[in-house]
Amino acid sequence: METWYFIDSKEQHPAYNMALDEKLMEWHRNGEIPPVIRFYGWDPATLSVGYFQHVEKEVNLNAVKSYDLGFVRRPTGGRGVLHDDELTYSVIVSEDHSAMPETVTEAYRVISEGLLQGFRHLNLHAEFSIPRSVEEKQRLKNPRSSVCFDAPSWYEMVVEGRKVSGSAQTRQKGIILQHGSIILSIDEEKLFDLFVFPSEKVRRRMQQGFHKKAVAINELLTETVSMNEVKEAFKKGFESGLNIELQNYTLTDTQEAQVQQLVQEKYGQDRWNYKW
């Protein structure tokens, strides 16, 4: 059984979270560390946007400020995510790893097996989302809103037909980064306040549709689970789903300094986050 590193970063600043994900890719690429599973949270609660999103057209920045949220652009694609009461995970592994298929879609399937097993450790019968109809596939290419959880993509998790986690993936110089959100609870009103809609009528229609398509863990369970219980379930899930053993790892002082440098140079800069 292969040993991967496991890092629980706990709650961190949004720029730090993105910088650490990028540095883990670099260190793995350089052979300094094995593949990594990382868990983390956000302090403050944060709106992250996908690499290709147009902030001024899609995001209500006044609402982001009024809610005292952090804001950061991810290196991955996808749509906007409100990181609040959630467990965020990231997986860093080489493209040429023996367990990783060549295509992005199939790599999602392999990595998401860890998520699938995690949900089942919480006694939730999660399943892979597999868009089949022409309409479903077209919706993935042309999403109707800027909200990530508006619809499940390939091999994301659904319970009773509703999306329970959202993920995004990038590949850079031979390394896969997949990270995503496992939602414990969600404030739908706050979430939809953060985005721009053509009209209030459209916003309400989108929000009503969202409730039918997405759900949080604690909305599904009869007894509320704690963050520690969720972490334990998904750590076991990744171990069984990927057939690996996770070894706790703490960054060295040198590595911490490199992360902080990247925060200052990139993810803490407006020119990255707003693409000015």
Automatic annotation (TrEMBL):
Q: HAMAP family in the record, alphabetically?
A: LipM (MF_02118)
Which residue numbers mark the site Lowers pKa of active site Cys? 163
- What's this protein's name? Octanoyltransferase LipM
| Enzyme Commission number(s) from the entry | 2.3.1.181
Q: Does the keyword Transferase apply?
A: yes
- Which function does this protein serve? Catalyzes the transfer of endogenously produced octanoic acid from octanoyl-acyl-carrier-protein onto the lipoyl domain of GcvH, an intermediate carrier during protein lipoylation.
Q: Does the keyword Transferase apply?
A: yes
- GO MF: lipoyl(octanoyl) transferase activity
Judged by the first EC level, this protein's enzyme class is transferase
Active site, per annotation: 148 (acyl-thioester intermediate)
- The entry's keywords: Acyltransferase, Transferase
Pfam families linked to this entry:
LplA-B_cat
Q: In which pathway does it act?
A: Protein modification; protein lipoylation via endogenous pathway; protein N(6)-(lipoyl)lysine from octanoyl-[acyl-carrier-protein]
Q: Domain of life of the organism in this record?
A: Bacteria
Q: What else is known?
A: In the reaction, the free carboxyl group of octanoic acid is attached via an amide linkage to the epsilon-amino group of a specific lysine residue of lipoyl domains of lipoate-dependent enzymes. The reaction proceeds via an octanoyl-thioester enzyme intermediate.
Spell out the InterPro entries in the cross-references: aa-tRNA-synth_II/BPL/LPL, BPL_LPL_catalytic, LipM, Octanoyltrans_LipM/LipL
Subunit structure and binding partners: Monomer.
- What are the BPL/LPL catalytic domain coordinates in residue numbering? 31-246
BP GO terms, sorted: lipoate biosynthetic process; protein lipoylation
Please report which protein family the annotation says this sequence is part of. Answer: Belongs to the octanoyltransferase LipM family.
Under catalytic activity, the entry for this protein gives: octanoyl-[ACP] + L-lysyl-[protein] = N(6)-octanoyl-L-lysyl-[protein] + holo-[ACP] + H(+)
